[in-house]
Design a protein that fits this description.
By secondary structure, this protein is mainly alpha-helical. Helices cover 48% and strands 0% of the residues. The model has no long low-confidence stretch (mean pLDDT 77).
Length: 178
């Protein structure tokens, strides 16, 4: 069994005994330790108009990120334009895929334009683009490099449909009373 701890006492004080009432504890003369953060004096801050450099910056809207990515998709698809034209002269499978891709790409670019100009618009165009590009992708062949802009366009169409959804506006009758 462990022994009980002795009672705590002040540094420099004599142990409890007969003359404990008339002895003052010794003051410790040493510098404060360095682990304590330095004290700073308080300063008065004037509330004034913020300058141009102090103005808060607004975050980049996700809808503009989607529009820029769709622009990159259009550039990537244009690099394979001669390949797409050559594939349309093949059998019927590529002709159907080309017709779907052209219509879906037109919907994708029109939806991006609507999303950039008017937030919350173009969701139906993005959904049609996602379906059209998604259905034409297996006909193009997933393993080929020319099909990657089509797949990227289908994914961007889904993201565009998400960001083009109508925002929920609170009902006026359920507003909190002041």
């Amino acid at each position: 069994m462990t022994e009980p701890r002795p009672p705590l006492r002040l540094v420099g004080s004599p142990p409890k005994g007969d003359d404990a009432d008339d002895v003052e504890p010794d003051a410790v003369d040493r510098a404060p330790h360095d682990l304590h953060p330095p004290y700073h004096e308080l300063a008065v801050v004037e509330n004034g108009e913020p300058g141009a450099e102090d103005a808060p910056r607004t975050a980049l809207s996700p809808r503009f990120v989607i529009v820029v990515l769709i622009l990159f998709q259009a550039i990537a698809a244009s690099t394979f334009l001669d390949k797409y034209v050559a594939l349309t002269h093949g059998d019927d499978q590529y002709k159907v895929a080309a017709c779907l891709s052209v219509a879906a790409s037109a919907c994708l670019y029109a939806g991006a334009l609507l999303l950039a100009l008017r937030p919350g618009r173009g969701r139906a165009l993005f959904i049609v683009a996602a379906v059209g590009l998604g259905l034409s992708l297996p006909a193009w062949g997933v393993g080929y490099s020319w099909s990657w802009p089509i797949a990227f366009g289908a994914m961007l169409a889904l993201a565009g449909a998400w960001f083009a959804r109508a925002e929920l506006r609170p009902d006026e009758s359920s507003a909190a009373q002041p």
